[in-house]
Amino acid sequence: MGKAKCKESQNKRKQVRKQSKKVIPKPGEKGFKTSTQLRNERKRRAKKKEKSGYRQTESESVEAVSSMNIDPSLLYVKNPRKAPLVQKAVHFFAQQNVPNFTVFCGPAKAWRTVAKLAVRNVNNELTVGLFAPGSHNLVAVPDCPAHHPSVNCTVDVLQETARRSGIRAFDEVTGTGNLRHVAINVERATGSVQLTLVWKFTDQPADATTNKEESEALDRLCKKLIQQGTSSKGESSLTLHSLWVHYNAAWKHDNAIFNHTGRWEHRHGPKSIVENLAIDDLKIPLQFPPNVFRQANLDAFTGIIRKIRNVLQERASLSAAPPACVELYGGVGTLGLHVADLCRSLVSSDENPHNKACFEETVRQMKVSDGSVSYKSLNATEMVNSGVLNEADWIVVDPPRKGLDDVVLGAMAEVTRPQILVYVSCGFDAFQRDCKYLVQHGQWEVLHAEGHILFPGSDAIETLAFFVRRTDDDS
Ligand SMILES: C[S@@+](CC[C@H](N)C(=O)[O-])C[C@H]1O[C@@H](n2cnc3c(N)ncnc32)[C@H](O)[C@@H]1O
């Protein structure tokens, strides 16, 4: 981002801070308002905005670009802070009187180290690309500037090799063809790639001959990719960390790239990419096989983890006893493990059964063997129903875009023991809903919030919010 534009958004942030400072005089000062008065004012302002048609939902903004065949990850790349959801977040926190809402943005190029791309026929040629938002129009993305260079090289090599090997791209109208998606994850330290071919496969006995031909084609493709990806002669631009196949038998109208009933086959190389985030002097080797969630911009996400650690470190230093922490929607423990040393206990959890082994391997390598750190393969509702929130001093949540599950949100509002709730959100509309609910129905207030643009150029914002127990008694 140019200096002038950076200055412009700094000024805007200053203005927002100034405005929010203006409307919250201290008790006893002229114009002081109680929480209830402020809340009612917020409601009135929100209603007015709604009437004036300001609100743009995520789906509306998606619809607006679906008809254009442009790379959706580059829509706002000239000024990522201009993305509608970023603007909406700034506006929301100003309305909520949350001061100092800052939006952080890292480099706009080469940040994507996790890419899931579709494979379809375009002009009768197998093509690897992205669907334009809200559609199944494939947009080829050669040399995408958002992609880590290793992703672009892999797309080139794979596309060429698959074409030459006579691999058929999946056709969602007829349900024919095999290669439907590819997942490319980059090991940041070496630039080598963990490549997963998502292969349509039917195991109907009637298809036995077809199956044999198709699996031979797959074997040929894998063999060629391994040859190219491990060649020491520098002939290929592909450096392979590992190769996996995910068999997805789902029929035409299924948008999920990985199918939870689909089979995973490990063909080559180490099973997991190991990522160490440079946070303090912690040594936390996170394990990422392709069947677990991994942040697409781990460099920028590290800034979020660092902030969580700083705030919780300060809280821990103020509390009489080390706290007990519960993590929901925890993935492989990406957030929780980075605060485990500040706690008496950490119970992390996630619904994806593949995470548990990753979490436990990291803990084994961290040499934590006293049982204070544990993992439950349960969804967030099951965790809440097990009563675990009543034993927690800190709660850390990082739900998918749809936000907190209803039962979880209801329980969060009612539970009385936890003193801090750390909420990381990748879906701003859902966060807005959850935040309003927690503030209105629970005893929570927002201590601090900040935005992180993890996908510069896309219409997205990652929100980090710290909720603490309300201390005023006038609500
Ligand atoms: C945005 S990811 C965050 C994971 C982790 N914090 C990280 O940064 O790697 C959301 C996680 O929620 C999990 N998830 C989705 N729905 C869930 C549910 N209802 N209950 C528990 N986990 C869920 C997914 O498997 C995924 O690992």
From TrEMBL:
Q: Which GO terms describe its molecular function?
A: RNA methyltransferase activity
List, alphabetically, the Gene3D superfamilies matched: 2.40.50.1070, Vaccinia Virus protein VP39 (3.40.50.150)
Q: Where do the annotations place S-adenosyl-L-methionine binding?
A: 295, 329, 350, 398
- Which BP terms in the Gene Ontology apply to this protein? methylation; RNA processing
Write down the InterPro entries for this protein, in alphabetical order: RNA_M5U_MTase, SAM-dependent_MTases_sf, U5_MeTrfase_fam
Keywords assigned by UniProt, alphabetized: Methyltransferase, S-adenosyl-L-methionine, Transferase
| UniProt-listed SUPFAM superfamilies | S-adenosyl-L-methionine-dependent methyltransferases
> Where are the annotated segments for Disordered?
1-61
The record's active-site residues are 426
**Compositional bias of type Basic residues: which residue ranges?**
12-24, 41-50
Listed Basic and acidic residues bias regions: 1-11
- Please give the coiled-coil regions recorded for this protein: none
Family under the similarity heading: Belongs to the class I-like SAM-binding methyltransferase superfamily. RNA M5U methyltransferase family.
Protein's recorded name: Uncharacterized protein
Give the source species: Phaeodactylum tricornutum (strain CCAP 1055/1)
- Lineage, opening ranks: Eukaryota, Sar, Stramenopiles, Ochrophyta, Bacillariophyta
